[in-house]
Amino acid sequence: MTDPKEMIVSKEDAVFWLDENGRWRNAHGEFKHRKIINHFHTAIQRDDKGYYLCQTHGDVLEKVYFRYEETALFVFEIIKGDPVSLVLNTRKKVPLVPGKLFTRDDALYMSLGEEIVRFTDKSLLALSPMLENVDDQLYISLDNKRYKINELNEIKD
Fold first, then answer.
1. If both were cysteines, with which of 27, 29, 89, 96 could 41 make a disulfide (CB 3.0 to 4.6 Å apart)?
2. What does the pLDDT read at residue 57?
3. How many domains does the chain have?
4. What CA–CA distance (Å, rounded) separates 101 from 148?
5. Residue 60 CB-density burial (10 A; 0-12 exposed, 13-18 middle, 19+ buried)
């Protein structure tokens, strides 16, 4: 079997994008069809050129790179347990690592290797019983320990 031909659509030519809240949009507004939204989220892949969606049409592999604001990865669900797990928009599950959390512009993020994930309002609400604000400093409590959540400008490599 031969490898399929590749058709590449640049992010500048893509007709859809992912907004800062993890919602798919096009020129007509926010996507409404849950099945399409879920398919797009679970199809997100990444290579050295960026994030893209991929599908095969006959013998043609179509890669559509898309625009996004800040990140293409979002926490959609919190699974409380030991450890606490985060379910991303891609449906991938990752552990919550307190030392990788940070805030920027009133939003909560977590570093995930070279990528960052942003917590949606819904996931932040689910996480809120574990969060504490003391003198304008945010903390998260896990396993009977309290961890400081740094602001982005405090993150050290």
1. 89
2. 85
3. 2
4. 9
5. exposed
State whether 103 and 124 are in the same domain: yes
pTM: 0.89
Compute the mean pLDDT over every residue in the chain, rounded to the nearest whole number.
Answer: 93
Distance in angstroms (rounded) separating the CA atoms of residues 32 and 78:
23
Is residue 17 a contact partner of residue 67, using CB atoms and an 8 Å limit?
A: yes
Domain range for 123: 73-150
Cβ distance 146 to 97 under 8 Å? no
Residue 141 DSSP SS3: strand
By C-alpha distance, which of 104, 100, 102, 107 is closest to 83? 100
What is the model's pLDDT at position 157? 40
Q: Is the pLDDT of residue 1 over 60?
A: no
Q: Examine the pLDDT at 156 and tell me if it is beyond 60.
A: no
